[in-house]
Specification:
- The protein is α/β, with parallel strands linked by helices.
- The chain is built from 20 helices and 27 strands.
- Strands 9-10-11-7-14-15 form a six-stranded mixed sheet, sandwiched between helices.
- Helix 1 (11-23) packs antiparallel against helix 7 (173-182).
- The chain is globular, with a radius of gyration of 25 Å.
- The protein binds adenosine-5'-triphosphate (ATP).
- Adenosine-5'-triphosphate is lined by residues 146-147, 149-150, 191-192, 195-200, 227, 336, 339, 341, 359, 361-367.
- It holds the Pfam family ABC_tran.
Length: 624
């Protein structure tokens, strides 16, 4: 069947196309399609874009367009994707949160110059928060609340929230249904919103924004966190909507690796089908053009192919199963009311293991991990959930055990939670959202050292000093080790690594040296400066790197990396992958569980000892 000269795939989407067309709510967008010269967005050449508050034109701009004019026609069929580390600057500009100099004569949104554009624009940021998150208040919120939500019965369900959005939606019931269906949310209507998994929540937020049918809809990294099937359905939906003049014009952003695959010295176009144009912004680079120009001209000329992706991991590192059992689960079950999320899970994790935990959105990965971290209330009622616990109740660390505290396996009920936090390092979307940003002046250094206890409380220690409790054995030795660890992760994962001036490569300028009892450790000036920066002043990708350092700094026995690469740019991911198996990265005494929906993001292969555990319809199995 052809609608608008367009081949339509799925029947429910066919309906969406025809019915959205009938309403024709966006007359202006349609007129652009019929030759109206006014574009939807226009940032002229030689514009400088400043953060609000930048005193004058002598302040440094966020970015400059130089000889590039960025024009989005707003015509049906055109679809822009934004990539590069500066993509959020571009969104901020479109949201009116920056100042453009000179002020564009026709306005930033020429097509909407006779109306206030801002009610016609919706933005779905990358960051999600199931509760009121630090993005709003900067304070801590307890993300573990979601695991008990149904007991309390006090949170709105997705269905209730959908009914509320219906009141303000210009779309018909059938149109809203078609969107809900194509985002795979219908079967979740009875789930409390707080309990939605990450991927489910991202889809729910996109659905809500689509219900408003704005003229311009901006989606920041919409593919991140979606499983393979949801990604396919989402791409199918956007492919359809882009052809409908009365539907929102949708601008999406991506991490570079989501649209370009680097390998064998060449770059391959793996961008979603609906993209027709690409804007790249990073540092002083600002480039806009068609998809074909991007892949044929821009990528080969401007992105260093040889240095991306690939052979960073030493293939000799295969310690899988080499050590003692760290976690043991037998017949583990979790259910909410009648909804069984985990059903008879058996899993053993040993030191040296590198696991890729797989499963679609909502398959129970986060739930399973929350049992291992002891965050889930149902962790206490499992018959056989053995977790690491202190060998004795005395201080956990002394001179000989500074890098490997004494531990044994215990039932969850006999595992002291603070000790568990000490032995299990975590970075997950929930933790990223919950990490408090409000402590006055919390520095990067301070944020990293909260990892020694798995706590969220800044200790306000100056750079170069760390906290050690007086009761901890051999405090002096421990202090020295902790300071060294902080510098190791900062140097290995800080800007020195992702900006290409790591101390392990050629000597960057202005390098200093610090000497510890064991061996000298080089710390570059850029690392020292970074350590002193305020955590909140960093962009989300940098914050994520710092929280990865926090997870690694204590050399935890078990490391849980849940969707850690989301929000990070490719160079950061490369640096992290390199660090994880480098000299100061992970050891054979540590076990790792990694969660990602992108196989290419797993730093290990089966030759490196990678194992896969897959959750499907409540059951878990090892796959080979
Ligand atoms: N308190 C709750 N009440 C009801 N259902 C819940 C509750 N908590 C979680 N769920 C449901 O349990 C399922 C598992 O969620 P979980 O977050 O573990 O999925 P996931 O595999 O991590 O998904 P994603 O890949 O999207 O992060 C989801 O369908 C979720 O809606």
């Amino acid at each position: 069947m052809r609608v608008l000269g367009v081949r339509c795939g799925h029947p429910r989407l066919r309906f969406l196309v025809t019915s959205v067309n009938r309403r024709g709510t966006h007359a202006a967008a349609t007129s652009a399609h019929h030759g109206d010269p006014l574009p939807l967005i226009q940032i002229p050449k030689h514009s400088s874009v400043y953060a609000f508050g930048a005193a004058n034109e002598r302040s440094s701009p966020l970015f400059q367009t130089k000889d590039v004019e960025w024009t989005v026609s707003g015509a049906a069929g055109e679809s822009w994707g934004i990539v590069g580390r500066g993509k959020r600057n571009v969104f901020q500009t479109l949201l009116g949160h920056t100042r453009i100099h000179p002020v564009p004569q026709k306005g930033l949104f020429p097509i909407m110059r006779d109306t206030d554009p801002f009610p016609n624009i919706k933005f779905v940021p990358f960051r999600h928060s199931n509760a009121v998150g630090p993005g709003d208040s900067g304070g801590f919120y307890d993300y573990t609340a979601r695991y008990g939500a149904l007991w309390e019965g006090d949170d709105k369900t997705l269905g209730e929230s959908v009914r509320e959005s219906a009141h303000t939606s210009p779309l018909s019931l059938q149109q809203r249904d078609a969107i809900m269906e194509s985002l795979g949310l219908r079967e979740l209507l009875d789930v409390p919103r707080i309990a939605l998994s990450n991927g489910q929540m991202r889809r729910a937020r996109i659905m809500k924004a689509l219900f408003k049918n704005p003229r311009l809809l901006m989606l920041d990294e919409p593919l991140t966190g979606l499983d393979v099937i949801s990604r396919r359905r989402f791409v199918e939906l956007l492919e359809m909507l882009k052809k409908v003049p009365s539907a929102p014009r949708i601008i999406t952003s991506y991490r570079l690796q989501e649209i370009v695959e680097f390998g064998d010295g060449a770059a391959r176009d793996v961008a979603p089908e609906f993209l027709t144009h690409i804007l790249f912004h990073e540092g002083d680079k600002f480039w806009a053009g068609t998809r074909r120009e991007f892949f044929n001209d821009f990528v080969p000329q401007h992105l260093e192919l040889g240095q991306r992706r690939g052979d960073t991991i030493d293939a000799a590192t295969n310690n899988a199963g080499a050590g003692r059992t760290v976690v043991h689960l037998k017949d583990v079950n979790v259910k909410y009311g009648t909804r069984k999320v985990l059903d008879g899970i058996n899993w053993e994790i040993r030191q040296g293991d590198r696991w890729h935990l797989q499963g679609g959105n909502g398959s129970g990965k986060t739930t399973l991990l929350s049992l291992l971290t002891g965050d889930h209330p149902q962790s206490y009622v499992q018959k056989h959930l053995l977790l690491p616990s202190p060998e004795s109740t005395s201080a956990p660390v002394n001179q000989s055990t500074v890098t490997q505290p004494a531990w044994k396996l215990e039932h969850r009920k006999r595992t002291p939670t603070p000790y568990l936090q000490y032995l299990v390092g975590v970075l997950s979307p929930e933790l990223f959202d919950a990490f408090p940003r409000r402590y006055p002046g919390m520095s990067v250094w301070d944020a990293v050292q909260t990892g020694f206890r798995g706590s969220f409380i800044a200790l306000n220690k100056p750079v170069g000093d760390v906290h050690v409790d007086p009761w901890e054995a051999d405090a002096a030795c421990l202090k020295e080790w902790r300071i060294r660890r902080c510098w190791e992760v900062l140097e290995g994962l800080g800007p020195a690594s992702w900006n290409g001036s790591s101390s392990s490569s050629s000597k960057p300028q202005g390098q200093e040296e610090t000497v510890t009892r064991e061996s000298p450790l080089k710390i570059s000036t850029v690392t020292r400066e970074f350590a002193a920066m305020s955590f909140t002043s960093l962009n989300p990708g940098e914050q994520r790197m710092v929280l990865l350092m926090r997870a690694l700094v204590g050399r935890p026995l078990l490391l849980i990396l849940d969707e850690v690469w989301s929000g990070m740019e490719e160079k950061m991911i490369e640096a992290a992958r390199f660090h994880l198996d480098g000299l100061n990265g992970l050891g054979a005494d540590q076990a790792v569980i990694l969660v990602t929906h992108w196989d290419s993001e797993v730093p290990w292969t089966p030759e490196h000892g990678l194992k896969m555990f897959r959750l499907e319809e409540g059951s878990g199995r090892i796959i080979s």
